[in-house]
Design goal:
The chain is of the alpha/beta class. The chain has helices spanning 11-26, 50-66, 77-87, 104-112, 124-127, 151-155, 163-175, 200-210, 228-235, 256-262, 268-281, 300-312, 340-364, and strands at 2-7, 30-31, 40-45, 71-76, 94-97, 133-137, 139-140, 159-160, 180-184, 215-218, 246-248, 286-293, 317-322, 369-374, 381-384, 389-392, 404-413, 416-421.
Length: 423
């Protein structure tokens, strides 16, 4: 039977889906990249915003409408937060909450009486569900309890995965031909606090020393969680060519008053200082961030402070999230809600700043050499080490013959770097 897996939300969800695909293959199923030829559809959901919930419901309805005989599975954070809402749709055949996600392959195996088989013949495309980079969860859950965030309710408390297990997973993927791994989790910066003599720095060092992964990437680290030991690895001649110089550092707001209300643990000054420090010491680095617009109590002055901070930052892109009320969070009970029309207006202004910063970043890469990991089956586009999208010029006859290729950036077209393979 063919299984199609679709993932919404964060890189941790991608890691979960890739792990599920490996287990499903071992149960005798096949992973399909063609929805039309699939028997089972799995949606790994997100619930961080109301729009994420709506997206999941609409997708499930669409699948059932166009594929009425397909077995529908909903798993992930949405069922964990509100299982009854998923069940009330009346179209989902199997619902698996987040804390039971590990049991999904066995549940399907029992339902369809599949036999366990060896996964030795599994190819990397099936294991990564069509992607060229693997996402590996190094920890799950969160102890921070930010006032706007539902994640602690749907992911639980922080739990670090033992480094031996992480290194084993990476070595397995390398043996299958994987070239890039993204280390992901909810709270990467506090990795290892619940293990003996372990930290994010020690884990990175262990992965670099005990695996042959070509490119290693971090997903998201908060401003105050960086230190000289971590960043020193990017300056080390032995490791720097394997560590991707892209850092996602969430800001959420450029106002310290709003950050305090959000219960974030850093200041705007700390954010600016770490961004400047990274840009100074790590060549070719790029930094992205998140901004929540319209948090309860956010004034026009707070918004202007955020805009001013972003304009002087050295960011390459901003992910903008209009504030979404989440039952079960303390921000749900805050007064001074910002009107939706104001949130829309402010979000547009932040996105305009993001467009300007992204354009400036891409212009800085013109006429430079970059190494690209090709993304699609035709190997015509992919991501540089600093996570900037690149596409081969249509006029070039030279095509890549390796998974990672050095290219020359020649132009910018439709927010994409365009160029040729370097000679």
């Amino acid at each position: 039977m063919n299984v199609y897996i679709e993932t919404h939300g964060c890189k941790l969800n991608i890691a979960d889906s890739q792990r599920i695909s490996k287990e499903i293959l071992s149960k005798g199923f096949s992973i399909s990249d063609d929805l039309e030829k699939s028997d089972i559809y799995i949606l790994n959901t997100c619930t961080v915003t109301k729009s994420a919930d709506k997206k999941a419901r609409n997708r499930l309805r669409n699948i059932k409408k166009n594929h009425p005989t397909m077995h529908l599975v909903a798993t992930g954070c949405y069922p964990q937060r509100n299982e009854s809402e998923i069940l009330s749709l009346g179209i989902v055949d199997t619902v698996i909450k987040n804390d039971k996600k590990n049991e999904l392959p066995l549940v399907l195996s029992n339902k369809f009486y599949k036999e366990t088989k060896s996964e030795s013949n599994s190819n990397i495309e099936d294991l990564l569900i069509g992607r060229t980079r693997a996402s590996i969860a190094i920890q799950k859950g969160c102890n921070q309890i930010c006032s706007y965030c539902i994640v602690p309710k749907v992911r639980g408390r922080e739990n670090s995965i033992h480094p031996n297990e992480i290194i084993s997973q990476i070595n397995y993927l390398v043996s299958k031909g994987c070239k890039e791994v993204v280390l992901t989790g909810t709270q990467l910066g506090t990795y290892g606090y619940d293990l003996d003599n372990m930290s994010l720095h020690r884990l990175l060092l262990g992965v670099l020393e005990q695996t042959q992964i070509v490119r290693l990437r971090l997903s998201s680290v908060q401003p105050h969680e960086f230190n000289d030991d971590i960043l020193g690895l990017w300056k080390n001649k032995k490791y720097k060519d394997r560590l991707c110089p892209h850092f996602h550092i969430p800001l959420q707001s450029g106002s310290n008053n709003v950050l305090k209300s959000m219960r974030r643990k850093y200041s705007t000054q700390e954010f600016l200082e770490i961004v400047k420090h990274i840009k100074t010491i790590i060549p070719n680095s790029s930094i992205t961030t998140d901004i929540i617009v319209g948090f309860p109590g956010e004034t026009e002055e707070d918004h202007l402070r955020t805009k001013a901070l972003l304009k002087i930052s050295e960011l390459s892109e901003i992910h903008v999230f209009p504030y979404s009320v989440r039952p079960g969070t303390s921000a749900f009970y805050l007064n001074d809600k910002v009107q939706s029309s104001v949130i829309t207006k402010r979000a547009k202004e932040i996105r305009n700043i993001s467009d300007d910063l992204k354009n400036k970043h891409m212009k800085s890469l013109l006429n430079t050499d970059q190494n690209v990991l090709w993304e699609n089956k035709n190997s015509l586009s992919g991501y540089t080490e600093n996570y900037t999208y690149f596409s081969l010029s249509k006029s070039t006859n030279k095509k890549p013959t390796l998974p990672i290729t050095k290219v020359k950036v020649k132009s910018i077209e439709d927010n994409t770097l365009v160029g040729i393979i370097s000679i």
